[in-house]
Amino acid sequence: MLYTPHLTTRKIMPEMQEFPMLSLSSRITPEHLFYIRNHFPYPIIDMRTWGLQINGLVNRPLYLRYHDLLQMHQVSIPVTLECAGEKRALFVPKTRGEQWELGASSHAVWTGVRLMDILKAACILPNAMEVTFEGMDKGVRTDMQGIFTYMRSLPIKEALNPDLLIALYMNGKPLPFRHGYPARLIVPGWYGMASVKWLQRITIIDQPFKGPFQAVDYVYVNTAKPVETIRLNSTIAQPSDQQVLAKGEHLLLGTAISGDSPVLFVEVSFDNGMTWQPASWLDPHESYSWRRWCLKWTATNSGTYDISVRATDAAGNVQPEIADWNEKGYGYNAIQKIRVYVD
Amino acid sequence: MLYTPHLTTRKIMPEMQEFPMLSLSSRITPEHLFYIRNHFPYPIIDMRTWGLQINGLVNRPLYLRYHDLLQMHQVSIPVTLECAGEKRALFVPKTRGEQWELGASSHAVWTGVRLMDILKAACILPNAMEVTFEGMDKGVRTDMQGIFTYMRSLPIKEALNPDLLIALYMNGKPLPFRHGYPARLIVPGWYGMASVKWLQRITIIDQPFKGPFQAVDYVYVNTAKPVETIRLNSTIAQPSDQQVLAKGEHLLLGTAISGDSPVLFVEVSFDNGMTWQPASWLDPHESYSWRRWCLKWTATNSGTYDISVRATDAAGNVQPEIADWNEKGYGYNAIQKIRVYVD
């Protein structure tokens, strides 16, 4: 029990908990420290009756019991999930919503059935345009009347990406209830809102889905574009901002990720971006995983140090100096800066 | 396990954990959510040999085993502890050190032996000036060479205040190791640095104690004054800053405290301090306890609301508009302001 890092509780109902980035000792996040961003109270699930429906524009509607899913071909893929509101607290001016700091992101190995296999088994009709995913979690919203279930859609092309999973396991163990048991959609490379928990229904439709978690939330209000793939980003996990250090060698440690193009390298600056030095990778490249970087730094002189980190992707993109401010505070990915003091 | 608030982990070694203020459902903080601010790694304690020494300028040096302390007259006092760095993250510009937000403060009922009874039993000599308290926790500092134990002093007059305890119990249960077992000094009304954990020695001296946790840390650098009693302060526990609310009735809930003069009333403003309305007390007045306040607020119109809270004490003091900035970030007690959105 000593020296236990905890989730940072941002909200109790619905539950919102942040991964403590300072405890980034392994690439994989232990399940009990994996961030949680719910939209509604936890659903009540009766496994005697639970099954996953696949319906809409299909030739063969399916109803897959938990047992059926367990019997299907299983695939394991490491995928980092990241809330679209990650680092929202860093926006200036602040924006409405949970004030996520650095840890609205976590990494796990997900195991389950390829969504593609299920969609093929259902025989999608040619006029299919989108696929909707409905969770069992439901409740009220502040901005409209009625009871809503949490529901999202994907374009049919994205839904047929062979790396999308209906996950039944997380880090080799049955998916914890708090993370979507019995079945959770995993959409690699997309912000976490796409990875619908407590799945109960998949529907193939011939028009754009306009549910409130698609058309009202998870929209960059400044450009009216939907929030989709994870923007190029990097994070300093240690030291933390305003930390006091002794003279000597310190390890700077953090993560980098992009949902679009592989991150090629991470650089660190000690002079507010005048000059940059490359960090080293602690992890190999994997398509959908954050990759930890580190840099040994010897602090020989007392003083105040400003440290910045930036990632560059294979397409030549670099993180922006200033975040793309938007009213609902999504997709913060500006270069992170911290200040530390050497005594 | 569902909807579990956690401590917010600010640092792993030494351990620093913050109480989640959003879970202020009772006046008393459950032990597992009580904030932790350690200066060193946890000490190793062998209860077969542990005893509390009382020495220095006394006629009768004492050595009190745990069993001896348990046999002495026990007193229970509710005392709120608050880290001197509480709300440090709110200073502008930021200051070095742990970026505590709202919850570097917690409340418990402490039970143990009056320090006064022990000092009397030891027969203090007339030239006594200060009393030092030494914990068993020790380690290195960033700013000077050597190994230090955590050690603090009090003026003799303060040490003889009958409300100071050598606490053996917290909330009616044996003091948890993380909170100072087997014995912790409790100094009501003072910031938490005075309430030395894992006590091993009490020494009466005839000169001012100049240890680094007395003369280097816990000093307001701007005035060169020592950090002592808890400044008049109030906190909004719910709603949280940037929260989105539905139209209708909401409960504003928070705490108020002062280590100097009783808090008379708490007021809330919805117009940046132009007008103020009184909050109601949820708890009775107790000398050393935070007191929870609440205010029912009916949000009838959509919009953005700025909410401020301020406390006034019996001496007529009001919290300042702007915090008393000091280099090490102690004693933040400016009027807290949050912004919420009604949809």
Q: Summary?
A:
The first copy, chain A, has 343 residues and is mainly beta. Chain A has four helices and 24 strands. The model of chain A has no long low-confidence stretch (mean pLDDT 97).
**Helix share of residues of chain A?**
under 10%
Rg of chain A computed from alpha carbons, rounded to a whole number of angstroms: 21 Å
Overall structural class of chain A, as computed from helix and strand content, comes to: mainly beta
Number of DSSP E strands of chain A: 24
In the residues of chain A, how many domains can be counted? 2
Write down the overall geometry of chain A: elongated
Strands in their spatial order, largest beta sheet of chain A? 5-4-13-8-9
Q: Quick one: which chains have the greatest interface?
A: A-B, 42 and 43 residues
Describe this entry's structure for a reader.
The structure is a homodimer of 343-residue chains. Chain A is built from 4 helices and 24 strands. With 343 residues, chain A is mostly beta strands. In chain A, the strands form 6 sheets. Chain A has a 5-stranded mixed beta sheet. In chain A, strands 6, 7, 10, 11 and 12 form a 5-stranded antiparallel beta sheet that branches. In chain A, a hairpin with a 2-residue loop joins strand 10 and strand 11 (173-174). The model of chain A has no long low-confidence stretch (mean pLDDT 97). The interface between A and B is large, with 42 and 43 residues.
Could you list some keywords that capture this structure?
homodimer; about 350 residues; mainly beta; Sulfite Oxidase, Chain A, domain 2; Immunoglobulin-like; 5-stranded mixed β-sheet; about 40% strand; elongated
